[in-house]
Amino acid sequence: MNSILEWFGYVAERYDDILETTWEHAQLVLVVIGVATTVAVLLGVYVQRRPTLRAMSLSITGIFLTIPSLAFFAFFIPVFGIGNRPAIVAMILYALLPILRNTVTGLDAVPPAVVESAKGMGMGTMRQLFQIKLPLAWPIMMAGVRIASLITVGIAAIAVLVGGDGLGSYIQSGLTRLGLPNSEFSVWTGVVFTVLLGLVLDAMWATIQRFTTTKGQRI
Amino acid sequence: MSMTGAQGRIGYEGQEKDNPEPPPDPNTGSDATDAAPTEQPASWFLRAREMNLGLKLAPVAIALLGLGLFLYYRSLGLGTTAPSSQTSALEWSTKLWPQLTQHLTIAFWSTIIVVVIAIPLGIALTREPLRRYGPAFVSTANAGQALPAYGLLIIFLTLMGQGLTTVVVALAVYALLPVLRNTMVGLDGVDRGIIEAGRGMGMTRGQVLTRIELPLAVPVILAGIRVAMILNIGMATLAFLIGGGGLGVTISVGLKLQQNEVLLVGSTLVAIVALSFDWVGAVAEKYLRPRGV
Amino acid sequence: MSPDAKIRLDHVEKTYPGTKVPAVESLSLEVYEGEILVLVGPSGCGKSTTLRLINRMIEPTGGRIYLDDEDVTKVNADKLRRRIGYVIQQIGLFPHQTIAQNIATVPKMLGWDKAKVAERIDRLLTVVGLDPDTYRDRYPKELSGGQAQRVGVARALGADPEIMLMDEPFGAIDPITRDRLQNEFLSVQEDLRKTIVFVTHDIDEAIKMGDRIAILGDRSHIRQIDTPERILAFPVDDFVRDFIGEGSTLKGLHFETVDEHVTLEPYPTMHVGEDPTAAVARAREAGTDWVLLLDDQEHPTRWVPVSDLGGGSTVSSDSGSEVVAKVSLGATLFEALEQMLISEAAVSPVVREDGSFYGVVRLTHLNKAIRRARLEAREHYAQLEATS
Ligand SMILES: Nc1ncnc2c1ncn2[C@@H]1O[C@H](COP(=O)(O)OP(=O)(O)OP(=O)(O)O)[C@@H](O)[C@H]1O
Ligand SMILES: [Mg+2]
Questions:
Q1: CB pair distance less than 8 Å for B201 and C82
Q2: What GO cellular component entries does it have (chain A) (predicted)?
Q3: Would the CB atoms of C173 and B191 count as touching at under 8 Å?
Q4: CA distance B120 to chain C (A)
Q5: In this complex, which chains have at least 3 CB pairs below 8 Å with chain A?
Q6: What CATH homologous superfamily does A16-212 map to?
Q7: Which CATH class is domain C259-366?
């Protein structure tokens, strides 16, 4: 109990720096999610009805997600050097699968009868996609984005090991000063704020999802 | 995330490796009006293809990576042209091989612990009277994805000190939630009518659990174990941070010495290990799936 | 209490936790050995709850349940259920087990030996009309809905229980298959003589399947319990009348047959080649203007008007009109009515099994039969009231 209060004190003292570091962390995540969503949605729309390409892209993005994060970050150091960049690239590749998978399943879940009647009314392919398919698949796609966001928040804490920014720095500085005063508080700060950031971003996606889903689809 | 589905069931949103929906029935005759497929058959057809392709594609990727690593490793000229720091960091018999076995030992034990704890816990949380706490656990499991593995490891270091035990325990805690969640989702996904029929024939609760619910939940539980295993192999890469060894050591040496050669060998080796075990998991999922399901 | 009550519910009550109104309120009911008792009533009236109380899938909150006069309200529920077959709408076949394994479930739990179980599986598959060699090793997903429900019934019959509980067993099956399954089930029941409680919300299914029908209202209150004939002939109140709906009289015709009980009339007939004058005399005597022409196998072939029979010549083979509608002896009055509607006159010849002429049935016969059934039912209820 006491130490929790002390930790609050620790946080209060470094309030500014913690928020700034959290914001760094958030920026990493937002960049990753932004790029990954764009790529995965375009890819998903393209491959959904093309069985071979679809299977290939899902398998390959699945392989990405299997590779341990530190190793994946390290892969890109020879190309991008030390810093945020190798981490961002690796995390984009990680985030592809959840979004891609949910995009294709979301599009699958659009009732064929709806598409059929849209066609029957003379809607073109693009119009069908933007007016019918994507809006109907949107909630499922957003669920994928939320999973990707949660995963990325957690993994971004490792970026510090390859010279990147983010809340991992609090964990790292705690580790290097282990045994010294406040080192444990530093680690806890890194962990707690990472999880909090994950939840805040998740709530944000949920809100966006809510306001971008038509009333007819809300549950 | 919204966790509760219809009828207080534990719903969950499509995590990539889980396929809890049953495939549509290709052999259903014309007079079948029951069991209307909830999903369109086309998508299941596609999904089955995806799984099969994944099963074939992964070995190719693994073989290519392995071959590449082998050739690259040989081309480094270790012990001759390569710097001595590199040679010592990448020596197979004293560095890489022991690290590999350490890595696998860590991942193995933590996975075992996860299975031993999460499955019984998942069973308990889908029975009365604990059932109503189930959705809370599933929500936690989802939020837990944001938990930084790195931080968790250090927290356990501060609690338990350095060493293998600490690593194994930290990993087990981290990977517990996916298996727990999948156990619950799998058990909960068993059709009520099937359970009702079992009970109606006079099976005890235990018999219904062991003969019906668990066998039918096997695919989903296995998927959870596979996820846990991959998480553990990944997190074992960080074990070096708290003196637990593993292949992460080589990567960290590469980072420290700023030698791309060391980095590449270490990370490729880790990737090969992870992909291989994931593939084994996928094969197991395919063959341990009960027939008729 | 009737001595052959196989199942007896005595003021049974069920209030689900968290609800105030009981789903089943003080229900007393007897099911006789070897009968099919159908529970029928509007959705949510408590039919399933009642059924599930009998095998203690849910525990009663009051009252007693007896099987064979043994109080089973507190016995081990699992063991109890192994003595009772249970079929539900969702069927609930175990998808990871073959058809044979599914059927073997209860026999195995009861410790039957392997040979006996195997023999039983084949017997039961045959009973429900599935070829054992074809279906034994299939998985449930390899069956059609109708086949799956047959297996469901076979599985419930697994250990030869004396009692079967069936909750809308044919509810999810298309009408044509359902009709077939109902008929097959009735013919199986003819041999097996199980004591069956059958739940449906479809009054027609109830009429077809039930030896007796219990019409349930809210909270599983019995509004009327009786044979289908009597319920159709004499619905005790508006609730029951509304529930059986339009056409109850017509439905009642299903239960009376064209045989000795419906007094049939003779009819003037003549054979081909016979001297018509005698026939004309017979027609005069019977007060009709028609004669029924029979061929040499006594099959009725044509209706011939008396006016065609003047002049003493033999009947030409195309005089009068062809007999288009015939009823066989033992057919239901419903079928008889149908035949009469097809024929020009409100009369139809009745033939024996070999097709030979027996007599005729007229609309007035149906009329009488209906009135008699109603009268009987009314008297029955009057008597009931008098004794109670
Ligand atoms: N597990 C339960 N908990 C609370 N109430 C229940 C439960 N099961 C049923 N009920 C309630 O009890 C009443 C009777 O339900 P029951 O399922 O027996 O009806 P039913 O006659 O079988 O209806 P249907 O024809 O729709 O199957 C209903 O009002 C229902 O809402
Ligand atoms: Mg019901």
A1: yes
A2: plasma membrane
A3: no
A4: 22
A5: B
A6: MetI-like (1.10.3720.10)
A7: alpha beta
Q: How high is the pLDDT of residue B63?
A: 94
User: Residue C42 in contact with residue C206, Cβ under 8 Å?
Assistant: no
Look at residue B221 in the predicted model and tell me its pLDDT.
93
Give the pLDDT confidence score for residue B8 in this predicted structure: 30
Q: What's the CATH number of domain C5-244, 3.40.30.10, 3.40.50.300, 3.20.20.80, 3.30.420.40?
A: 3.40.50.300
Neighbours of C307 (CB within 10 A): 11
Dump pLDDT digits (tens) for B122-144. Answer: 999 999 888 888 888 888 877 78
- Domain residue extents for chain A: 16-212
Q: What are the sequence ranges of the domains in chain B?
A: 100-293
Alpha carbon nearest to ligand 1 atom 31, residue: C44
Residue C343 near ligand 1, beta carbon < 6 Å: no
Q: Which tokens go with B76?
A: 């480094």
* Residue C208, helix vs strand vs coil: helix
Write down the pLDDT at residue C315.
66
Atom 28 in ligand 1: which residue has the minimum CA distance? C44
Please tell me the predicted confidence (pLDDT) of residue B11.
30
Does the distance separating the beta carbons of C142 and B34 come in below 8 Å? no
Closest in B1, B49, B254 to A55, CB measured: B49
Q: Which of B150, B258, B264 sits opposite A157 (nearest CB)?
A: B150
Question: What is the pLDDT averaged over residues B205-222?
Answer: 94
At residue A205, φ and ψ (nearest 5 deg) are: -60, -40
Q: Cα torsion at B143, B146, B147, B150 (round to 10°)?
A: 170
Residue B290: which of C86, C96, C173 has the nearest Cβ? Answer: C96
pLDDT tens digits, A132-191:
888 889 989 999 999 999 999 999 999 999 999 999 999 999 988 888 888 889 999 999
Distance CA C35, CA C32 (A): 6
Give me ligand 1 centre to Cα C48, in Å.
7
- ipTM for the complex? 0.86
Judge whether residue C276 has pLDDT over 90.
no
Residue extents of the structural domains in chain C: 5-244, 259-366
Q: Which residue of B has its CA nearest to A101?
A: B16
Q: Which CATH class is domain B100-293?
A: mainly alpha
Q: Is the pLDDT of residue B23 over 60?
A: no
Residue B32: per-residue pLDDT:
29
pLDDT tens-digit readout, B160-204: 988 889 999 999 999 998 899 899 999 999 999 999 999 999 999
Q: At CA C152, angle to CA C149 and CA C153, rounded to 5?
A: 95
Mean pLDDT of A87-96: 95
Separation between Cα atoms, residue B22 and residue C82, nearest integer Å: 29
Tell me which residue in C106, C155, C174 faces B202 most closely, judged by beta carbons: C106
Q: Write down the pLDDT at residue A141.
A: 93
Specify whether the CB–CB gap between A60 and B57 falls below 8 A.
yes
Contacts of B27 (CB under 8 A, 6+ apart): C141, C142, C143
* Exposure letters A99-123 (e unless 16+ CB within 10 A, then b): bbbbbbbbbbbbeeeebeebeeeeb
- Helix/strand/coil for C74: coil
Cβ-based interface (< 8 Å): residues of B facing C: 22, 25, 27-35, 191-204, 207, 211-212, 215-216, 290-293
Task: Dump pLDDT digits (tens) for C327-346.
Answer: 888 888 888 888 888 877 77
Cα distance between residue C262 and residue C258, in whole Å: 6
Does any ligand 1 atom lie closer than 6 A to the CB of residue C21? no
Query: Does B254 reach chain A within 8 Å, measured CB to CB?
Result: yes
Angstrom distances, CA of residue C255 to CA of A171, C329, C334, C369: 85, 14, 8, 10
List the 105-164 stretch of B: residues with Cβ below 8 A of A. 142-143, 145-152, 154-155, 157-158
The conformation of residue B45, written as its DSSP 8-state character, comes to H
